[in-house]
Design goal:
Layout: H1 2-9, H2 12-31, H3 37-63, H4 70-87, H5 95-120, H6 124-142, H7 152-159, E1 161-166, E2 173-177, H8 179-196, H9 198-208, H10 210-215, H11 220-246, H12 258-267, H13 279-299, H14 305-339
Antiparallel strand pairs: 1-2
């Protein structure tokens, strides 16, 4: 028990969890509304798409570097999936068919990122910034995408709900959509792959030390390319989930979410230098930032302070990663000298 506690207090996730508990109690004391059933459901609902994006960001950071293209991949792949569904008369099929179409297009866009990064060894941040602009131009320029209604299969999926609650005091109601199950499924699959397979070990090995990973027999280029293909597919699921939850497609509302997601995974303990990061921390960081986004009004604080908080997290997280990386290099150098 003592060893377990010592190990736990060394983890970033433990402190993020403590912050979540303290913040939730403060909000409850100040407003009396945090633990209301409709507020809890609203929090879970608000976490769905950012949590899916956070998997993309985690996989990229752990293996290669920052990926900021996933919101625009989500936007463009969702649009293409809706257009194909409408033009091929697939409105009466299962919602799953439209999601498969979106995943196909998302994987192609992710493959473009992976090809450029792996083939030319360009920084992932620069490449994904460039492809974000490319995808945005195609969506809003070439296709002239506008607000559009969902096909019948997605509209029916959007109307279905897991839970519907109503606050007896305020009369406000909230619903938890079926897309919450998609988020849970993605996390389970990602956890199993990262923690129970050689591919998952390779992802962390490549991010930790590319040379050592290659000597250990891992296909470094293949893993990095595959990560961006997978990220494209996950982004497509997130994009269509957002459309389903909104009950319409809104092309201009996808851009800009990457900074919040990156802040969330850094807050959850993902190291910007690669090789370190957990899905547990990823989920906790997303929950904390979702609480900040949704609950500032309950505390009577201006929503503009959210940007201050997120910016501070990115700066502090970058500094912590740099310090940890420097300390790690010093420790390795000292160990080599002692063993020489």
């Amino acid at each position: 028990m003592n060893k377990f506690f010592k190990r736990m207090v060394k983890q970033t996730e433990f402190y993020v969890f403590l912050i979540i508990v303290v913040l939730s109690l403060v909000i409850q004391v100040r407003s009396g509304l945090f633990f209301a059933n409709n507020n809890i459901v609203d929090l879970l609902r608000s976490m769905i798409v950012p949590s899916m994006y956070a998997i993309c960001a985690l996989l990229a950071f752990v293996s290669t570097g920052p990926d900021v293209s996933f919101p625009l991949i989500a936007a463009l792949s969702s649009y293409l999936a809706l257009i194909v569904t409408n033009n091929l008369g697939l409105e009466d099929t299962s919602w799953f068919i439209t999601f498969i179409i979106g995943i196909f297009f998302g994987c192609i866009m992710g493959a473009l990122n992976g090809f450029i990064i792996v083939r030319y060894n360009f920084p992932s941040l620069i490449v994904t910034l460039g492809t974000s602009s490319l995808f945005s131009g195609i969506l809003l320029g070439a296709f002239e995408a506008e607000r559009m209604n969902l096909p019948k299969n997605l509209a029916a999926f959007g109307k279905a709900s897991l839970i519907t609650v109503k606050n007896a005091k305020s009369g406000l109601g909230s619903t938890l959509p079926m897309t919450f199950l998609l988020m849970i499924a993605l996390y389970i699959i990602a956890y199993l792959v990262l923690n129970k397979t050689m591919v998952g070990r390779g992802v962390y090995a490549v991010g930790g030390d590319e040379v050592s990973a290659e000597r250990a027999g891992f296909n470094v280029k293949g893993i990095r390319f595959g990560i961006f293909v997978v990220n494209g597919g996950i982004a497509a699921i997130a994009g269509l989930s957002y459309a389903v939850m909104s009950m319409r497609y809104l092309p201009t509302e996808y851009a800009g979410g990457e900074m919040i997601v990156i802040a969330a995974i850094i807050l959850g303990g993902t190291r910007m230098t690669g090789g370190i990061g957990t899905l547990k921390g990823c989920l906790l960081g997303t929950l904390l930032l979702t609480m900040v986004s949704n609950s500032l009004i309950l505390l009577g604080i201006s929503v503009y302070w959210q940007k201050v908080f997120i910016g501070a997290i990115i700066i502090i997280g970058t500094a912590v990663s740099a310090v940890q990386s420097h300390a790690g290099r010093k420790a390795k150098t000292r160990l080599k000298k002692e063993t020489a």
